[in-house]
Amino acid sequence: MSFFETIEQYQNFDIGAFFDRVTEADVRRAISQDRLEPLDYLTLLSPQAEACIEEIAQKAHRLTLQHFGRAMLLFTPIYVANHCVNQCLYCGFNANNELRRTRLNLEEINAEAEIIAASGLKHILLLTGEDRLHTPVSYIKECVEALKRYFTSISIEVYPLTEAEYRELIAAGVDGLTIYQETYNQDNYAYLHPAGPKRDYRFRLDAPERGCKASMRAVNIGALLGLAEWRREAFFAGLHADYLQRNYPDVEISISPPRIRPQLGGFQPPVNVSDKNLVQYVTAFRLFMPRSGVTLSTRETAQLRDNMTRLGVTKMSGGVSAAVGGRSHTDETSQFEIADERSVAEMANMLYEQGYQPVYKDWG
Fold first, then answer.
1. pTM of the model
2. How many CB atoms lie within 10 A of CB 5?
3. Helix or strand run (H / E) with residue 24
4. Contact 92, 263 (CB under 8 A)
5. pLDDT single digits (tens) 117-130
6. Helix or strand or coil: residue 177?
7. With 80 as the cut, is the pLDDT of residue 11 above it?
C-alpha cells in the first residue's frame, strides 16, 4: 500500500472541469460540513471559493483554537552540510552551482548549537543536501548525538532514507521528519530533477510513510509552491497528509506550504502563488484536517506571517539562517533567501502582542 495508489486514482480526474462546475452554494456547503471529504476540500481550493475566504478563515481560526489553543510552537533550522549530487533546478545547492561545499565538524556543530540554545529554543530541524559520500547516515547520527545535549526535539530534513535508516536515527534521538515531495506532478517532477538520486519520484513519495512505519513521532510534508499549479499541489499535499494520518494515527502529521524564494542559480518559478492563494490553501487545509499542524517558515514576510498567525498556523521558525553554520559564519551561501529575519525574541514578542503563547518545548 502506498499513497501512489491514491495519486493514480486521480490520474484522469479533470480538476479544471471540476472547478468549472463548482458554485458558491457548493463552497458554503463544504464550509458547513463537520468532516470534509476530498472533493469538499478541493471545492474550498477552487477559484470560486475565493469569494468566501473570509468565512473559511473564520472557521479555520475557530478550529485551530479548539484543537491547539493560542499556542505557537517555535523552532529553527540548522544547516550542517551543503554537499549535494542532485541537480534540482530550483535549489541553491544544485550540484551544478558554484559555491563552497562544506560540512560542519562536531566542534562547529556545538558552536552553532550553543548560539541557538541561548535563544531558548528546544526544537531544532537538521538539514543537509543529498550526498551519501559526504553526509552518510553515520554523519547525520553523529550530528544528532551532539545536538541532543542542547535540544529536546530533533527533526531531520535530509535525503530520503530507508525504513531501517529512519529507525537507526530514531534510536539516536531523532523524533521528527520533514520531507517535501516538491511537486506531485510526475512529469514536472522529472523535468525539475534532471539528474541525481532525487529523480526517483516513488522513493521520495514513500519516504514519509517509511518514517511513519519506523515510529517517527512527527512527520511534516508538503509541496514547494510555484513549481506547478498550486491548487492541484495543495489538493495532493492534503490527500497525502490525510492518507498518512488515517494509516498511522499515532504519528503527528503536519504540512508546510513553502513558496519558492530567490536562490543561487536564479530559477524563476513558472507559477505565481499570491498571498491570497497561500491563505486559501492554509485555511482550506485546516477545515479538511482540523487536528494537523501547519508550519509557516521564514520564506514568508514578517507581515504575512503576522497576519497568518490566526489563520490555522501552529508552528513557525525564528532566528533563521539557511546557510551552513550561518550563525557562527557569515561567508557561506544560503540555500535560498529568507524573507523574515526576526530573532526568536522578536517572534515571541509578536506572538504575545497577538495574544498567543510562544512554545519552546511541547512534549517530553
1. 0.97
2. 9
3. helix 24-32
4. yes
5. 999 999 999 999 99
6. strand
7. yes
The answer to whether residues 162 and 129 touch, using CB atoms and an 8 Å cutoff, is no
User: pLDDT at position 335, please?
Assistant: 85
Query: So what's the pLDDT on residue 364?
Result: 43
In whole angstroms, how large is the CA radius of gyration of the chain?
20
Instruction: Report the alpha-carbon distance of residue 105 to residue 145 in Å, rounded.
Output: 13
- DSSP helix/strand/coil, 89: coil
Q: On the CB side of 356, how many CA atoms lie within 13 Å of its CA?
A: 30
Which residue's entry shows cell 483554537?
Answer: 65
Q: Find cell 504519528 and name the residue.
A: 251
What CA–CA distance (Å, rounded) separates 180 from 204?
8
β-partners of residue 156 are 126, 177
- What DSSP string runs through 114-148? HHHHTTT--EEEEE--S-TTTS-HHHHHHHHHHHT
3-state percent breakdown (helix, strand, coil) of the chain, nearest 5: 45, 15, 45
First to last CA, the chain: 32
Model pLDDT for residues 154-196, shown as the tens digit of each residue: 999 999 999 999 999 999 999 999 999 999 999 999 999 999 9
Cα distances (angstroms) measured from residue 221 to each of 118, 147, 149, 184:
29, 23, 27, 12
Query: How far apart are the C-alpha atoms of 287 and 29, rounded to whole Å?
Result: 12
* Average pLDDT, rounded, for the chain: 96
